[in-house]
Amino acid sequence: MKRLLSPLTFFTKACGTFGLRRHAIILAYHRVCPHTECDWLLKDMAVQPDDFDRQLSHLKRNFDIVSLSQLLDILSNGSRLKVRPAAITFDDGYADNFQYAFPILKKHNAAATFFIPTGFVEDSHLFWWERLASAIVSTSLKKAEVRIWGDSLNLKLDGTHQRSTTFKKIAAILKYKKLTLINDFLENLSVLLKVTYSRFPSYTMTWNQMGELCTSGIVGIGAHSHTHQPLTILEDGELVEELNISRKMFLDKLGITVDCFAYPYGEVSDFNQNIKNYVHKSGYRCALTMRQGFCYPDDDMFSLNRIGVGGFDTDEIFKTKIYGIMPFINNLRSVGWKRLLSERRMNLKN
Ligand SMILES: [Zn+2]
Question: What distance in angstroms lies between residue 228's CA and the mean position of ligand 1's atoms?
Fold first, then answer.
């Protein structure tokens, strides 16, 4: 990490300190592992262990790292934030969370919450996006034509740029299909591209590993649905099942009651008011999104913002995300200098 205070760091810290309401942050990680352990197409999902270690050091010096439930208590309190709390979360339950992230969390005594899609625990199959990436990365073909739900799609596979574009194009279509249809498509694709999908006995965390996390005293578990499908494509009955099966499995396997939920994918298009109502009615106290932003005391507890941390985030980008240039600029646009300065004066009096 660069020790000198660069102009960008100075500006981002100033944005966090001056003119803005003090904010809380919920960081969202997926994988933590060396980049040699993942396909190049998905490196942005994997934060390298050394980077994660430095990020936690920075957070410890500049934020109060609290558990997600403590952060919710602080937000629910409704008063202006006197500290700057940060909660750390992980989605999808990758085994590398246990192997690489957990020891670093313990080293820093930092709390974290792991959101697990229960249908994939101890499953040796890769997630569908991993299988898609591995097919596109490993095929020796330069082009192919695939049928995708009645349409014919020309796959351009000559070079990394074409493969990256092709991956994004297909992933965007698959995301909103039922899981059984995705699995069928990927089987056909593997034949077409002449590849086989790897299977890993320890690709996701086991129940025993999650049990160890729970007894550490610093880790909480949250629900991330059972099958990790966008909830917006499900009938109401299926939605209720997704919300209830995972809770029941955590109770049966780990003896814990989970009360936090993270929407699969979590973009704004992946939840709506009907879904929020069902999450609330199912007994959860909050739901986290992947909408990028800070958290404030008056936020809706069933659509909380997070800050996604990616594998290509340099230290400077990480700081920009947690202190926030974009929220500052947006605030300036919508509120204006005079109101911003008067809020700052009120902050100083409190
Ligand atoms: Zn997920």
Answer: 6
Ion ligand 1: residues, CB < 5 A: 91-92
Share of the chain above pLDDT 90, in %: 75
Give the integer Cα–Cα distance in Å for 320 and 318.
Answer: 5
Q: Summarize pLDDT for 44-97 with one digit per residue, the tens.
A: 999 999 999 999 999 999 999 999 999 999 998 866 667 789 999 999 999 999
Judged against a pLDDT cut of 70, whether residue 6 lies above it is answered with no
Q: What's the mean per-residue pLDDT of the chain?
A: 88
Q: Please give the pLDDT value at position 147.
A: 86
Residues whose CB falls within 8 Å of the CB of residue 204, separated by 6 or more in sequence, listed in order: 92, 93, 94, 95, 120, 121, 122, 123
Question: What is the C-alpha to C-alpha distance for residues 80 and 343, in angstroms, rounded to an integer?
Answer: 12
- Specify whether the CB–CB gap between 264 and 233 falls below 8 A: no
- In the reported structure, the alpha carbon of residue 255 is separated from the centroid of ligand 1 by a whole-number distance in angstroms of 23
Give me ligand 1 centre to Cα 233, in Å.
15
State the Cα–Cα distance between residues 253 and 293, nearest whole angstrom. Answer: 34
Instruction: Tell me the β-bridge partners of 26.
Output: 87
d(CA 305, ligand 1 centre) in Å: 15
Q: How far is the CA of 347 from the centre of ligand 1 (A)?
A: 37
Considering just the CA atoms, what is the radius of gyration of the chain in Å?
A: 21
Instruction: State in Å: Cα 224 to ligand 1 middle.
Output: 7
230 C-alpha vs ligand 1 centroid, how far in Å?
A: 10
Q: Ligand 1 mean position to 91 CA, how many Å? A: 5
Tell how far the Cα of 46 is from the centroid of ligand 1, in angstroms. Answer: 13
Please provide the CATH number assigned to the domain covering 7-123+200-349: 3.20.20.370
Distance CA 137, CA 116 (A): 27
Residue 136: pLDDT over 80: yes
CA of 182 to the centre of ligand 1 (A): 16
Write out the residue limits of the CATH 3.20.20.370 domain(s) in the chain: 7-123+200-349
Q: What is the pLDDT of residues 310-343, one digit of tens each?
A: 999 999 899 999 997 654 555 555 555 555 455 4
In the predicted model, what is the mean pLDDT of residues 141-154? 90
